[in-house]
Amino acid sequence: QVQVRESGGGLVQSGGSLRLSCAASGVTQSAYWVNWYRQTPGKERERVARIFFNGRIADYADSLKDRFTISRDNTKNLVYLQMNSLKPEDTAVYYCSVAAYWGQGTQVTVSS
Which burial class, exposed, middle or buried, applies to 81 when counting CB atoms under 10 A from its CB (0-12, 13-18, 19+)? Predict the structure, then answer.
């Protein structure tokens, strides 16, 4: 059974930082693209960043690439999303996806 789980969300003030983690069991993350998405109520889910299995290829939403960094640790089967200089508009539920599997999401709230 494949399970994907996000962690690291929370409440942070504008300008602060958070690091999200994505853990997957039952699937080897290193074999796939791993994606981070986010969604706010009433809006479509937006891909934030993704990283290729070897960790050497990553891409980002254009509006976020200066503040967000995706990385992976294949020895731990974890993918991280480092988010810096957070803004209130970054408030969303952040989801991780691996292959066709999704986590339940982790809430990020940025206060002004």
Answer: buried
Locate 57 and state its tokens. 């290829």
Side chain identity at residue 36, one-letter code: W
The residue length of the chain stands at 112
- For 1-112, list the strands marked E by DSSP: 3-7, 10-13, 18-25, 34-39, 46-51, 58-60, 68-73, 78-83, 92-98, 101-102, 106-111
pLDDT tens for each residue of 6-55? 999 999 999 999 999 999 888 776 678 899 999 999 999 999 999 987 77
CA distance 106 to 48: 14
